[in-house]
Amino acid sequence: MEKSSYTATGASDRCIAATSVSHTSVMFTLLARSRSAPPIASIDAGDLFESHARACAVYASAHRVVCAAPFDAVIVSAGSRAAGRDLVQAHKALDAVAPIVRDGGTIVLVARCEDGIGNGEMLDALALGSPAAIEAALRARFTVGGHTALALLAKTTRLTVLAVTDLDDEALRLARIERVRSLHDASTRLRAEVGQEARIAIAPCGASALYQLGEPADEGL
């Protein structure tokens, strides 16, 4: 069967890649975007991809953060215990800020990850050892965990990723992430490596916003 892909920005906190079979039986969707108060922020329904795109646009209009130039480093927190309970969830914070960090720059991730990697498929994919090997495996048999692993390595090969985390050493090795013991140690290293004049940002709830490069004036900000 033919496959088609669709990419939209914004459904929750990041770009979401949706891959589908063209002859899918899903003809109608109902999307509800929730928050703590009020519990329902918006509702959309209709065609699988068109309704998703509309929901993304609504979210993006309220959560987009436009940065005029790339940063040398960003310190990002997963934002909550639930958002940082494992690497699958914590990756969302990385994914949110990666677009605004220059090639070769640094991200400091703060996420406890007490539940480890959080997905056996992701662990198996990371164990393959390289983005090329993971991509080949995905082309043979697509898995959500494998897709997340490939997305993670795309960041950890382009950037230096440091983490204040409880992830074990083997998980960090597979993910190509380096442990730092504290934010103090991370900030000391950043000062030494990127310098006092570097552009550094802090994203305390990284996955709650949509960060992108551009001219803030163009967005009405």
Structure commentary:
The chain has 221 residues and is of the alpha/beta class. The chain folds into 2 domains: 3-64, no CATH class; 68-217, Alpha-Beta Complex (2-enoyl-CoA Hydratase, Chain A, domain 1). The protein is 35% helix and 29% strand. It has 7 helices and 11 strands. Strands 9-8-7-6-10 form a 5-stranded parallel sheet, sandwiched between helices. A two-stranded antiparallel sheet has the order 1-2. Helix 2 (87-97) packs across helix 5, helix 3 crosses helix 5 and helix 4 (131-140) packs antiparallel against helix 5. The protein is globular and about 50 Å long. The protein starts with a strand and ends in an 8-residue tail after the last strand. The model is unreliable at 1-23 (pLDDT under 50).
Offer a few descriptive terms.
single chain; 221 residues; 5-stranded parallel beta sheet; two-stranded antiparallel ribbon; 35% helix; globular; disordered N terminus
